[in-house]
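Try this one yourself first.
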């Protein structure tokens, strides 16, 4: 087994955001522990209970959570690697790669989380490894073409036209091959 594959996303186990507060983590833990406890005759699952307990031990303690957050951020960055940011540093072709990267992330986010398909500009900057000032033109262009929507809070999401654009240009296969979809609950996020 590849050591990178052994990473366990405790936020996914507890079904919470990495930005979740301590009280939220504790509340969700209690709910899931009760659901998966081996004594629960309807929904008990010893393996899931063990994972939930392990996740709470890590995320419930501020010190171990901080250590885990470093690993989580590194792993998340690897999952979303769409292109080499060094190669996308200048010129018309690199601009196309940045636009593709934005659409790829937004497409993946919409597929994984249709109820909240938005990504903030800061998250996009972090995921793509491209400075904000290099993203500004691409955001403007994609919005003007109707391929993305921009929210009042600065977040973006892909439109149906954006998905169709990926389809028409044969880029959906590239998105699925390059962007490693984060593993989620029951195959979704």
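Now uncover the answer:
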């Amino acid at each position: 087994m590849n050591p990178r594959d052994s990473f366990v996303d405790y936020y996914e186990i507890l079904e919470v955001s990495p930005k979740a507060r301590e009280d939220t983590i504790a509340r969700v833990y209690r709910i899931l522990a009760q659901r998966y406890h081996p004594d629960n005759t309807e929904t008990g699952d010893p393996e899931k209970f063990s994972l939930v307990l392990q996740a709470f031990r890590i995320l419930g303690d501020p010190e171990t959570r901080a250590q885990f957050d470093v690993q989580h951020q590194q792993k998340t960055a690897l999952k979303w690697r769409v292109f080499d940011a060094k190669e996308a540093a200048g010129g018309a072709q690199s601009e196309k790669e940045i636009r593709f990267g934005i659409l790829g992330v937004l497409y993946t986010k919409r597929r994984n989380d249709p109820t909240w398909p938005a990504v903030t500009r800061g998250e996009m900057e972090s995921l793509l490894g491209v400075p904000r000032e290099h993203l500004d033109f691409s955001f403007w262009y994609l919005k003007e073409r109707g391929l993305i929507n921009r929210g009042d809070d600065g977040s973006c999401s892909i439109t149906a036209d954006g998905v169709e654009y990926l389809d028409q240009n044969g880029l959906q296969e590239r998105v699925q091959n390059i962007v490693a979809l984060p593993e989620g609950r029951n195959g979704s996020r």
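Discussion: The longest helix spans residues 91-112. The chain has two domains: 3-77, 83-178.
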